[in-house]
Structures are given as C-alpha cells and as structure tokens.
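Quick start: what a row looks like.
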Amino acid sequence: MIVTTARKQVERLKEEAMSYITPLNGTFIDRNDRSIEDFYLAFGDQPLLVVAKDKLILHKQQGAEPFYYHPNVAFLRYKQWRRSGYDPFLAATELHPGDTFIDATLGMGADATMAQLAVGQKGQVIGLEANAYIAFIVSHGLANWREGDDLFIDALRRINVTKTDSLSFLKKSESKSVDVVYFDPMFDVRLHSPGIAGLKQFASYQSLTATMVEEAKRVARKKVVLKNHTKSDLFATLGFSVEKRANASFQYGVIKQ
C-alpha cells in the first residue's frame, strides 16, 4: 500500500500519514502535488491511501470509486428512531441496555451504530471486519467523526472494531457469551450510499455458511439475526424465521435461542 497526503495542508498531514505506515504495512510517498492518476502511473495498481484533513480516502484502481468512512444512513436512522421509537433492525434484534452484540459483518458500521445506541453505555458492540483496510478506515472514522449530537457521537466512539473473519472469532468465543450475533452478508447488498461503492471493492464476499450459523447459535444467548434480500433463499436454507415486512427490499431472519 502507498500512503500519501491530500494536496492541501501537506506538512500538517504528513506526520499523521507517516503514523499509518506500520499498521498498514505501507510505504509513504510525498504528494508533491501529483494527481491520483500520476500515482497509478508511477506505482501501478497498489492500493493508495490519501490522508485528508477530515478523513482517510482509499483508492484501489484508476477510475474506481474511492472508499472512505461516512455514517451512511446511520444518522438518518438515528433521528427517525428518536422521533418514532422504531427501527426495523432494532425491532428484529430486540437489543436492550447492557446487552452485548456482535456485528459479524461490520462494513460501514451503520447497524453497529444503531446497536450501540440501543445497548447504551453499559452494553458492548463488537464489529468484525475481515478486510484490514476497511477495519482500519472504519475504526478511524468512528473515532473521529464529528457531525451529530452527543448521543450519536458517543455511540460511534464506543464501537469496538476487530479485524478478523467472523468464523474465526466465533470459534474462539465462549458459549453463550453474547446476547445477539448479527449477519448482513455483503454479497447481497444493493445499496447506493456514500462510501458503499468504494466498500464493495474491498469487502469480503464469503457466503454465510451453516457452520458460521451453528457457531453463532452456540455463542448467542438470545438470538442470531440475518439481514438479507427479500428473495434470498438463505433464510430457509439456514433455518431463520422471517416475519416479512411488506414492500421491503430486505428482511430480517431470526433464530431464537
């Protein structure tokens, strides 16, 4: 990976960029006012991380959408939840203050954010992300995002991002050690939101398996929840019960313990 800075405020950003070299096993290259295209010409198809004033921007290949952290739909969902007291994800997971929740497919962390809001300061949300670049950028974003009220920002800060694949993590977890385990497999996502197009280039597309579900059932005290496309056959194949929401693109399947 190549690490560089934005064109503006180079000297201020250079120290920050240099600090990312070791955790990302990267190489720092001075920007020298070069364009992103210039970097591709000089260094080929290596991932390129640009350290900007308020975010990290990851480029994979020329012409492709970059990946960067953004709360995505989380803040809109948060405001709607505060007004109405309802969110479909929270209705499916039935999280309570003090619960422990594993988001086994973290991605941009929107569901993890809603989960953290529900479990509160005494609860815990663990977000699992298999891709090291996504884990690093989302963790950085959660720690540094500043738009929103105190409750929303506090929720972002409390999410524990862990770079690992979900099966490995679940196998190492003690039985009945968390309340809810949640899966939202990336391979069925059809969203068009800030950062999502870039996310697709780096995300894991491993299919959810019966082994993963069995491990999740062993670890979860209350339930295992799966979000997937309405027409997905994973719900029936893997034993999830679905209370279908009318006219919804996605449904939530539940295995109660």
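That is the whole record. The mean pLDDT is 92. The longest strand covers residues 220-229.
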